[in-house]
Amino acid sequence: MIPADILPLKNSIAPADPAALADAVRAAYDASKPLYPIGGGTSLHYGLPAKEPGEGLSLAGLSRVIDYPARDMTVTVEAGVKMQTLADLLATERQRLPIDVPQASQATIGGVVATNWNGPRRYGQGSVRDHVIGISAVDGRGMPFHGGGRVVKNVAGYDFCKLLTGSLGTLGVITEITLKLKPQPEQQALLACSVADGAAAERLLAALVHSQSAPTAIELLAGPTWQSEPAFAALDPAGPESLIVVVCLEGTASEVEYMVRQLSAEWLALGVEVPLVLGESARTWRRIVEFSADGDAPLVLKASVVPSGVVSLVQAARQVDPACSILAHAGNGTVFIKFAQFPAQGLSRTLVSQLQPAAAAQRGHLVVLSNPSGAEMTHQSMWGAIDAPLDLMGAIKRKFDPKDILNRGRFVYV
User: Fold this and answer.
1) Rg of the Cα trace of the chain?
2) From CA 237, how far away is CA 223, in angstroms rounded?
3) pLDDT at 161
4) d(CA 315, CA 312)
5) pLDDT of 382 over the 80 cut
């Protein structure tokens, strides 16, 4: 079900192949009517609500696996392939795309690339941009184009892969993607501990930079969601400002065993009394991955700051809403904040006067990931003060989509 307050659709179409999709975009271009690309529908609240009625362009019909040369550790798929379907396919060859996304049974690879979604493993395994080595798309005139290729060592032409990643479907509708893969690790372990406050968390996070272990992910958790998580019941919260640090370790069985011992010893030297090795790591990991989409929070924010600024931003968010729940990919600087209630002083005032400046102070920015109420969704509240060459971005947009038909009004262009 597409929320009408997010996308006011007159109707929707689902082309069966890239050629039919190009025809549909060309028809919209000729008629100068907006088109709203739709993947799995899991990130529709991300971006400004569309103001102009238009046509939905579903990618559901583009769900084929084009090529999977497992020995080359690459795969080429159409944009509508579900992330869980892709994961299941790769698992047959003990390979993976290490990009963890919530609602993987619905989310599509095209949507993941278009929204530049990166999960907790980005710290050790790289971003989605690092894994996209070839891409095909249709621009706003209905003209197909592509960049990269199906081999890892490919430097031909302009880097459309990076340009389209994170463009929210406003430069072109992605139809096909080639991905670089990684081998599945033999074993995974999660090591967790509770710390009294932000200062203690800073010490642990800073020490991880020089650790003899090699974390795949470093997570910092705060708030009621995590205090009630059964997996952390054995941790003794040290007070109302306590936080939980979780480190993901992956590799062969012997490598993981060594890293658990090594990191436990390092934490003990820093005053952590009882590091916890989680026995049900798969369930806890899913909870971490699903956090941003789980439940019906009235407001979810996403901040991107320098890793050294994560704790400061967590503290700023808890000052605004002491009952909020937070998940931070502390090694990357990505922070998700789920409010317990919609800010009493309003969204714009909360963001513009408090949280966006707090993110900017840590050389980052903050955006609205989900606001089901739709209240106060302005360009400023959604994207903040964007430190980017908007004139250049606008010029590129006009080259790819001269009539502004693709996701009109939903992204940063003004």
Assistant:
1) 22
2) 11
3) 94
4) 5
5) yes
Rounded CA separation 123/72 (Å): 24
Percentage helix, strand, coil for the chain under 3-state DSSP, each rounded to 5 = 35, 25, 45
Amino acid letter, 82: K
Q: How many domains does the chain have?
A: 3
Q: How far apart are CA 100 and CA 291, in angstroms?
A: 11
CATH number, position 340: 3.30.70
Residue 278 phi/psi, 5-degree rounding, is -80, 125
Range of the domain at 282: 187-290
Name the pairing type of β-strands 9-13 and 54-58.
parallel
- Average pLDDT score over residue span 239-259: 93
If we measure between CA atoms, which residue out of 1, 12, 54 comes closest to residue 407? 54
Secondary structure class of 281 (helix, strand, coil)? helix
pLDDT in tens, 14-71: 999 999 999 999 999 999 999 999 999 999 999 999 999 999 999 999 999 999 999 9
Spatial contact of 201 and 311, defined as CB atoms under 8 Å apart = yes
CATH number at residue 94: 3.30.465.10
- How would you label 193-209 residue by residue, b for 16+ Cβ within 10 Å and e otherwise? bbbeebebbbebbeebe
* pLDDT tens by residue, 147-179: 988 776 555 567 899 999 999 999 999 999 999
Q: What is the C-alpha separation between 64 and 329, in angstroms, rounded?
A: 32
- For the four alpha carbons of 342, 344, 348 and 353, in that order, the dihedral sign comes to negative
